[in-house]
Amino acid sequence: MPILQRDFGNIIKKLMIERWKYVCIVSIPTPLMRYRTILLYITMVFVIGSHAARPWLILFCILIAIPSVMALTLNAGESQTSTPTIAQGDSVFIDGIATGHPQPGLQVWLIGNNYARVTTISVQFDNSFEYELKPEDTQNIAAGQYFVLIQHPMMNGQFDITYNAGTGQVVNQQLNGGTVMFILTGPGSLQASDSAAALIRAVNSQNIDDTFTTVSLFVDVPSALIDPIGERFVGEKFTISGTTNLAADDDLLVEVYSSSFVPTKKGQSGGFSGTTGMVKVKPGDGRNNRWSFDIDASTFKPDEYTVRVSAAKLSVTGSTTFTVVPRQIQTPTPTTIVVAATTLPATVATDTPATTPTTEATPLPIWLTIFGGACAYAAIRRQARDKL
Q: Where are the domains of the chain?
């Protein structure tokens, strides 16, 4: 297994294993240069020649890059809808494309609050470049806005705008054999924003052929803020969230514990109630990123709770409190029927004269009437026959 060394061109390794000759040409793209661990897997494809003593093979080489640190990556030359923010101690990578394979490379100007750095970087075989601000670099610079200008020498192959570290002056080499444009550092130097504007005017001058691209960022003190939580119930499931200026994919430790919790002796019940866990910072909208942590309060006791958020690698802590209360049991409310009271009118008693009750005759039943009539008719008929 060959050990890859960081290089700015093709990496060629020849392996001699017994009587086999392996030739592997590895091209490492610039964005992979930031990774500390690179694994190389070699796969045999086919034999292109044959010799009894030393056969030749063509191999495919597969690179697997394992990231070591998380950082902010900016693409030079692309328009920025907003200026990103990084925390002191986070890494910054600025990537881009520079055609023409300039021999002196590219000149990078980093200008900020009472800070200036001018360095040169190389352009890779694939026309890509990368500029890195390491954690130790951002840790030691003041908070504020920083401006990055990347200068290309163009056709004449030299930087026409240069910086004199001894005098702090920025010089136009094509104007009258070398003319001071402004003072970048030291006595009489311009403020950061004015220096950036003056540098753009200098590189953009008509009497030089250099070109440039820019990018900017904010550097701030590390912070982790927590959104308001409010009052919660025992057994409730909810999410605690917040903002941070730490880079996306940084680790945060979230601790939630009862404010009344105190250490106890062995064998005693401490009554601990809370939870803890690690979360990843997610990209946010605008200058800050987001983080969130899910809570299941089924084991929480009614109490005041403290939330503490801290970074795994940087010195940053945020905290707040919220209250967990017992969940109220909903009981049905009895329905009350209200009957409206009515007042009856008063009854006035009057004297009524006494009356004699009248007895009415009860009519005979019909069958009795018919029977009686039939008997009378029979008697009349009998008398009539007797007379005859």
A: 11-66, 71-220, 224-261+271-325
Pick the CATH number of 71-220 from 2.60.40, 2.40.50, 2.60.120, 1.10.720: 2.60.40
Burial code (b: 16+ CB inside 10 Å, e: under 16) for 182-198 equals bbbbeeebbebeebbeb
pLDDT band of residue 2 (cuts 50, 70, 90) is very low
The CATH number of the domain covering residues in 224-261+271-325? 2.60.40.10
- Output the CA–CA distances (angstroms, integers) from residue 189 to 116, 145, 254, in the order listed: 11, 17, 45
Instruction: Give burial (CB, 10 Å; 0-12/13-18/19+) of 160.
Output: buried
d(CA 244, CA 226): 9
The mean pLDDT of 100-122, rounded to a whole number, is: 93
Predicted TM-score (pTM) of the model is 0.61
- What pLDDT was estimated at residue 263? 59
Residue 181, judged by CB atoms within 10 A of its CB (0-12, 13-18, 19+), counts as middle
